Every structure is written in C-alpha cells, then in structure tokens.
Amino acid sequence: MTDKLTSKVAMELENKYGAHNYHPLPVVLSKGKGARVWDVEGKEYFDFLSAYSAVNQGHCHPKIVGALVDQAQTLTLTSRAFYSDALGG
Asked: CA torsion sign, 39 to 19 to 22 to 47?
C-alpha cells in the first residue's frame, strides 16, 4: 500500500480486521529513532514502553540495523527443521 493512512483509518482497519487481544493506545506510529517515535500525522512522542523491555535499545540503532542487514543478506530465516551454522557455532 503506497497511500499514507490517517490515524483514524488505520485504527478503523485494526478494529475491523485485527486480533482483539490488545487494546492499543489511540496513536498510529509510523517511525522511530532512539527513544522517540512519530505518528502518521508527524507528531513526536517519547517511547516509554521500550517494546515491553524486550528490545529496549531504542528504535533504529545503526549497529543493530547493520547487523540485521548483514544477516538478511546471508540467510534471512531458517527453521528448526534444519541445523544452522550460526546456532551451532
């Protein structure tokens, strides 16, 4: 989809088609950098949730993005149906 969604349309689509196991805050995020995130209208927020503490290094850290790109160019995904040299190494 190339058209930019408004917050209202994005929330309506989520309410209609999404799983209802969470009740998200009424904010539609579109990007993040460090501890800051922006909604689709361009309003800036501080991300105090820290991705529920699982990935609390912030958004788009250059070293992590670089590691993701390097890995994606090597082997994007493998399942437990195979052995992996990364897992065994």
From this structure: negative
Positions in the chain whose pLDDT score sits under 50? 1
- Specify the pLDDT at position 63: 93
Identify the residue whose tokens are 């437990």.
80
Rounded CA-CA distance 71/83 in Å is 16
Structural domains of the chain ordered from first start: 7-76 (3.90.1150.10)
CA–CA distance, 87 with 89 (Å, rounded to integer): 6
Q: Any residues with CB less than 8 A from the CB of 60 and at least 6 apart, and which?
A: 31, 32, 33, 34
Asked if 37 contacts 47 with a C-beta cutoff of 8 angstroms, the reply is yes
